[in-house]
């Protein structure tokens, strides 16, 4: 079994990585983290710090086809049981139009997709 995470160096991407690690621990799976090539360095830093979790984590940059295509292709790979992506919070109007990568992945992935949002601080 394997879990795939779509990573961006944002709060949403890091929330997806944390959730992917939690799922991998729960299901005793390995984790594949796919990032945009421009974000490979930030991904390596976050993956290295996540290595202490005890989960077998590998990472690779997305190919020329882009993040959406790479995540969708990964969802069809043998043994992939879950795909985790991060979502940004949106205004009411923004909720009508989801991000193009997120929407494409949710509609076309072969395996179940979990879309997570980062925690919001409630200071007050």
From TrEMBL:
The UspA domain, residue ranges: 67-117
Cross-referenced Pfam families: Usp
InterPro entries: Rossmann-like_a/b/a_fold, Universal_stress_UspA, UspA
Family per similarity comment: Belongs to the universal stress protein A family.
The protein's name: Universal stress protein
UniProt organism field: Kineosporia babensis
Taxonomic lineage from the root: Bacteria, Bacillati, Actinomycetota, Actinomycetes, Kineosporiales
């Amino acid at each position: 079994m394997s879990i795939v995470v779509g990573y961006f160096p944002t709060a949403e991407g890091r929330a997806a990585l944390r959730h992917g690690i939690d799922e991998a621990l729960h299901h005793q799976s390995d984790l594949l983290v796919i990032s945009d090539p421009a974000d490979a360095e930030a991904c390596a830093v976050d993956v290295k710090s996540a290595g202490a979790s005890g989960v077998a984590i590998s990472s690779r940059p997305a190919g020329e086809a882009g993040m959406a295509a790479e995540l969708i292709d990964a969802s069809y790979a043998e043994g992939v049981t879950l795909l985790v992506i991060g979502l940004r919070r949106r205004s009411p109007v923004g909720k009508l139009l989801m991000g193009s990568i997120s929407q494409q992945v949710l509609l076309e992935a072969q395996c179940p997709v979990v879309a997570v949002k980062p925690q919001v601080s409630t200071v007050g």
